[in-house]
Amino acid sequence: MSVNIYDDINRLEGTLRQTTEFTALQHAVDAVKSDEEALALFKSFRDLQMKLQDKQMKGEEISGEELEYFQKTAQLAQGNEKIEKMLHAEMALSGLIEEVNRVLMKPVQAIYEGI
Amino acid sequence: MSVNIYDDINRLEGTLRQTTEFTALQHAVDAVKSDEEALALFKSFRDLQMKLQDKQMKGEEISGEELEYFQKTAQLAQGNEKIEKMLHAEMALSGLIEEVNRVLMKPVQAIYEGI
Ligand SMILES: [Ca+2]
Ligand SMILES: [Ca+2]
């Protein structure tokens, strides 16, 4: 390392927490947490998603019934205003973090230029 | 956004370029570039890797012969001192960029706590 990159990483993290993208996600998650129906829907959706991903990673078969049930749950979750808002806030914040990675990877990719 | 996160991202990028991990990769890549044998080996390895990944993504079959040829090329490449050094330098720099992502994702994950 030698230069202290951690100062810059920590400064960036502090600024990230102040962005409108970050605070919007905080508010959107709080809105879901405090709405019984939205919270139950979101939990069902996330638990099913994790269960299916787990099966997929283990190479286990996912039945048509399971997939159908998951799709219905996903549809219900996405149709909920508060969950929808939260998913959009997640995407916006992800976009910002992807931007960090794009900026950091640019000089790394440049190293390989001409190879 | 509202706060100017780009200043912090750009400062971090500037510091990243000064880390020993970054300059070590620059030197390791330069060493491969200026060694005819290492460069040819690395290019064969990378081109084959991209070709096979492309086939895999398209769902095309990869023959046993192709796989065997790839493995031999990979073995030869990794056995080359200069390429080996470059691959290690890549991993060290990747570790640093993963660390940035870990630090940034920590407050994001905290938002979901208790859900
Ligand atoms: Ca809606
Ligand atoms: Ca060796």
UniProtKB/TrEMBL annotation, chains A, B:
Gene3D superfamilies given in the database record: YheA/YmcA-like (1.20.1500.10)
InterPro entries tied to this protein: Com_YlbF, YheA/YmcA-like_dom_sf
Top-rank lineage group of the source organism: Bacteria
Pfam families reported in the protein's UniProt record: Com_YlbF
Family label: Belongs to the UPF0342 family.
Name the UniProt record assigns to this protein: UPF0342 protein D3873_09995
